[in-house]
Amino acid sequence: MSDTVIQVNDLSKQYRLGQIGTGSLAHDVNRLWYRLRGKEDPYLKIGEVNERTTSSSGEYVWALHDVNFKVKLGEVLGIIGRNGAGKSTLLKILSRTTIPTTGQVKIKGRVASLLEVGTGFHPELTGRENIFLNGAILGMTKREIRNKFDEIVDFAGVERYIDTPVKRYSSGMYVRLAFAVAAHLEPEILIVDEVLAVGDMEFQNKCLGKMKDVSEKGRTVLFVSHNMGAIMQLCQRGILLKDGKLVVDNQIKNVVDYYVNKNNTTGHKIEKNIVEKETNQFIKIYMTDDTADIRSEYRFDEEISIRAELYLPKFSDSLELAMRLIDKHKRAVFTIHEKLVNHFNGEPVIKLNIKVPTKFLTPGHYSWVMCINHPGLLLYDLQDDIAAFKILETGSDFSRYQGADYGVVFVDYNVQKIDN
Amino acid sequence: MQRKGFQVIGHETIPSDAMNKTKARLPEDWDIILEPKTGFFNLNLKEVWRYRDLMWLFVRRDFVAQYKQTILGPVWHVIQPLLTSIIFLFLFGRVAKLGTDGIEPILFYMSGITIWNYFAACLTSTSTTFVANAAIFGKVYFPRLVIPLSVVISNIIRFGIQFGLLLVFMIVYAFKGVPISLSFYWFFIPFLVIVMAGIGLGLGIIISSLTTRYRDLALLLTFAVQLGMYITPIAYPLSFLEGTKYKWLININPLTPITEAFRYCVFGEATVKAGGLLYSFVFMVVSILFGALIFNKVEKDFMDTV
Fold it and tell me: Where do the domains of chain A lie, and which CATH numbers do they carry?
């Protein structure tokens, strides 16, 4: 296809684990010996899938394994995956800081990458000198930088400090200046990795706006982020990497959905053996959904459930399950007192499922405080800050205000115009 | 195509109606192909040229940043060789009483130090290209060769300053009755400087490439540079070793003919043979070619092993 600007064919990248020392010298010599005889590299065969949490005996792992995809001119592609899925390795290859082990990438046009802003800033040089140096590192010529100089200074908002060494800058100013330089690059293909994690809210919005501009001008953007809201806003298409393999390549919404639903293997969960037989206590608490799987992340428009299994050897009619939802600042969002007598049928174990309505909690981190309460008498098994979960920003009304404290609930309000 | 801001290499965005006409050029019309194996000798000097602004900015950075927050600033460029010359004058001239081919001792030592400093600086700074710049190299792509080239250039400026100091001293001594030998040989100096730089650059990038994986060589280097000075006629003239059994050691050193020729150009007094200079030149060409070859191989994926 002629309008394909990036074509990735069977791309793989292998890394060696552990340290380089005399041990690796033996491998190098062995590899050279194989190559001199015209044979294949013996170590390419023994790579393992990159599953970083499990330990293995192998010394080589595949950070990327047989990845294939294409990007068309003007497309904004979101790249999603857990830490260690191979996103950064992919970007490193695309931005030419390393080469593939096997496979091939073909690119049309100039590539510029914002893998980390402020690359090559020299602390002793002034803001002005660093704009030129950094711009040139990113591929601009002196003349181009001079033409854009005022725009860059303006965008960063550091006019007063432009002749001060950047080591005297506040970290915010430093990052703003660095991003401003990068944002004024005009390559055909822009690679962006998590730069939005920096700066205050106003600046983040500026950055998002700038990236939108770039894509609207018909340039191709590859965007890596853990911020699903920003990804859903900016990208049309997405790819999901898992353990070095490309798992999904589809419209961004589908990819995010898939990612959110499958990314819940690490849900917070309490599960314990009954230790003291004679007291009321929780056996299991975990976050879930209709499918009863353990979850820890939800889209903002998804139903949220919490499951609790209680062991009640000392049942009493006034016992209640007390639950309080707290936000990341440990502020109470709401509290529930559920009379357990409604659910008790003589069996000491009760399993309960509590549903929280959809579009109720705003994106953010939450957790629960739970106990079994005998009002005015006793608290059994107080569990503080458990079953943590996260509501993802997947395109709510608040996605434009990311970083702002806009409260923890959505409200279904009603506005009426009053005529005299 | 000159888009605002960026120059595209060899590729143009073709409107869809024009596409049919150029079908022969498509679809293998890629600008960059990233593959595990690349050409044996693919230095891409065109790309280096396109990044020439970056090269100058690195030169500027090296120069400006080095003496920031010092009171004397660039004066340090002069103080260092001056102090070294005085120490040499004392050690080799007064204590060891080595001859100077009849050249005024302070000028003799200063000339040696000037040219040796240039070589040593080129070699040691380019030899850390990969390791010292790993942070930048890991984030953005630009032709890696820009860094060693900028080092060589910024050292030329330092050489210029030190050479200026030497000239000042020659003029001062001219008033004291040490005549300056002006001859057309002075025009030969730039050539010597280039050969010196070339050897420094060539060896530097070889060492730099070899030390990305195993650092052992880098540890050896500081030691080697120190020793190197003693087997180069810096603190003594070549004629001093005439007839001794160590002469071969000095003769296989490709820096010897350059140092001697440099003194000959400036003072009209040294041991110079055309064969020796040719040897230095060939050594430079070979080391640069070999250096470029392995640099080219290493720069692609050194980030994985550095």
Answer: 4-10+64-262 (3.40.50.300), 269-401 (2.70.50.60)
